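wait is this the right file?? whatever heres the structure
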């Protein structure tokens, strides 16, 4: 019998990802959470993040709605990020 996989987008309370605390004043944490292109110079803006390095590159959209956790290789949705 084939197995079934249910996938969720995290928008509901039952499937929401637990918050990830990012302390940008702590160097190991600052280097751990990067934009999807691997840059550390991102800033929060409105309901997403903006990367200065991506903005300086031609043809790269500097706006993102997730961070990359370099330690685990997983992406963290911006809605689950808590900045300290």
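ok assuming it is, sequence goes like this
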């Amino acid at each position: 019998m084939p197995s079934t996989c249910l996938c969720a987008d995290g928008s509901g309370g039952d499937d929401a990802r637990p918050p990830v605390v990012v302390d940008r004043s702590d160097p190991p944490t600052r280097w751990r959470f990067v934009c999807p292109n691997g840059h550390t110079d991102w800033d929060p803006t409105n309901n997403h993040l903006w990367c200065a390095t991506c903005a300086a590159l031609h043809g790269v959209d500097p706006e993102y709605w997730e961070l990359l956790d370099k330690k685990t290789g997983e992406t963290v949705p911006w809605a689950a990020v808590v900045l300290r």
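The helical segments are 27-32, 52-56. so i think its the right one actually
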